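Postdoc handover notes: sequence design on the structure in folder B. Input tokens:
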């Protein structure tokens, strides 16, 4: 298990850190340029996060189904699953591009009523919308490589992206080296350029360097409808879970965004620092999904219970490490941002809350999205996330902000408490082992493995 889990976890963590680093660079440079620009970009990034979670659901379907076929040693079904995943992900990207083109102001008004922030957001979104098409394709293709334990290409593309993005941000935001001073529009242009290069690198690797799947361009153009039902059955629950989580984050940002501009900026700072410091703990979900999925696909069911027990201990240790890291570095990390004293104080308070709730995040998410989903039950995650988010998190935080007029810190706490609450049902379900199910197609003579 360790030979499968830890090398994969290391690569996924590096990829996650570098990917988040792209947003961190944007936030740092825009924060030094203008706090209003930082707030505007952070709101637009909520739309990108919704896309990331929705398209990521399709990618997760590729990983779960592909990992089980990889465990069986069959690559032809994986190529067919990837072709379906790329097309569905692109459809999602087109839908987001259309929404950002048709009603950009309406989208931003859902998130804030600050006119200056909306205007900056419109400048950013008018260019950023083109990344939605590029990102949707890249996400599905990088997920396909994760399913066969070739995740390193994702790290390579992420490193390339952050270098290009950082250099162009420095030139285009501030007008250095003779480039025009474009401010927030320059940050958007830099991101579009880096995402374009990212997609080119991924395509070149898959078509010319990869020796495991040997995908050709014609493979992505074909669609084998016989695998569509299998893919939808696995991917749809994960996609729904990702979409509702993205919508929930959109709503949460809207709740904070209607409080004040300082709260918007503080939330943006705290969120990006949290995602960076929690990369290791959250990446355990991807590594666990492939590890469990590969074992189930290979029919090695006797390994599932010891794997699951060991992985849960790793998740808890990762959560404790992440919480301590956030707690002890929060003041230092916020100090990098050139923002008002009020915004900095709020960001530090938000990070204090996250230092506690991150312990739950690093356990509950890898359990439901890694172990349980990788083992064959992709529906559970969507059910538990929807129940907690819409029956507790959103109602209580909305009451806190708009009815009882509690301080932003109290509202932020209500927004994050579900990360601790979900640990209880996830621990119970995980350790009952009713989620084990072989998702691959059985050939003549093979016995199907039921959820029991």
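Designed sequence:
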């Amino acid at each position: 298990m360790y030979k499968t889990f830890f090398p994969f976890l290391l690569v996924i963590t590096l990829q996650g850190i570098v990917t988040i680093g792209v947003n961190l660079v944007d936030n740092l440079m825009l924060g030094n340029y203008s706090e209003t620009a930082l707030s505007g970009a952070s709101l637009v990034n909520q739309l990108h996060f919704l896309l990331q979670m929705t398209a990521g659901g399709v990618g997760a379907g590729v990983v779960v189904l592909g990992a089980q076929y990889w465990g069986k040693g069959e690559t032809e079904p994986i190529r067919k699953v990837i072709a379906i995943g790329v097309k569905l992900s692109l459809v999602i990207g087109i839908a987001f591009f259309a929404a950002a083109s048709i009603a950009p102001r309406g989208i931003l008004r859902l998130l804030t009523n600050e006119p200056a922030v909306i205007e900056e957001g419109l400048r950013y979104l008018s260019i950023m919308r083109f990344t939605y098409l590029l990102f949707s394709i890249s996400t599905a293709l990088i997920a396909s490589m994760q399913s066969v334990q070739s995740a390193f290409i994702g790290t390579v593309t992420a490193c390339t992206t952050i270098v290009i993005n950082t250099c162009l941000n420095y030139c285009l935001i501030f007008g250095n080296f003779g480039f025009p001073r474009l401010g927030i529009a320059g940050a958007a242009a830099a991101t579009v350029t880096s995402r374009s290069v990212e997609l080119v690198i991924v395509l070149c690797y898959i078509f010319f360097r990869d020796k495991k799947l040997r995908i050709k361009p014609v493979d992505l153009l074909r669609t084998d409808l016989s695998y569509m039902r299998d893919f939808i059955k696995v991917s749809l629950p994960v996609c729904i879970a990702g979409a509702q989580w993205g919508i929930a984050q959109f709503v949460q940002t809207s709740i904070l965004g209607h409080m004040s501009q300082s709260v918007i900026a503080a939330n943006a700072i705290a969120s990006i620092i949290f995602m960076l410091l929690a990369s290791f703990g959250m990446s355990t979900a991807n590594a666990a999904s492939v590890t469990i999925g590969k074992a189930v696909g290979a029919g090695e069911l006797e390994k599932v219970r010891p794997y699951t027990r060991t992985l849960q201990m790793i998740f808890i240790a990762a959560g404790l490490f992440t919480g301590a890291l956030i707690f002890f570095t929060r003041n230092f990390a916020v100090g990098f941002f050139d923002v008002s004293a009020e915004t900095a104080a709020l960001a530090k308070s938000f990070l204090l809350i996250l230092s506690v709730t991150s312990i739950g995040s690093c356990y509950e998410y890898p359990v439901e999205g890694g172990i349980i989903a990788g083992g064959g039950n992709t529906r559970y995650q969507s059910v538990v996330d929807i129940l907690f988010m819409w029956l507790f998190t959103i109602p209580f935080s909305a009451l806190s902000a708009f009815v009882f007029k509690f301080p932003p810190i109290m509202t932020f706490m209500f927004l994050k408490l579900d990360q601790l609450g979900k640990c209880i049902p996830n621990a119970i379900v995980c350790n009952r082992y009713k989620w084990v199910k072989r998702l691959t197609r059985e050939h003549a003579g093979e016995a199907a493995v039921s959820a029991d």
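Context for whoever picks this up: The first helix runs from residue 2 to 33. Don't rerun without checking with the PI first.
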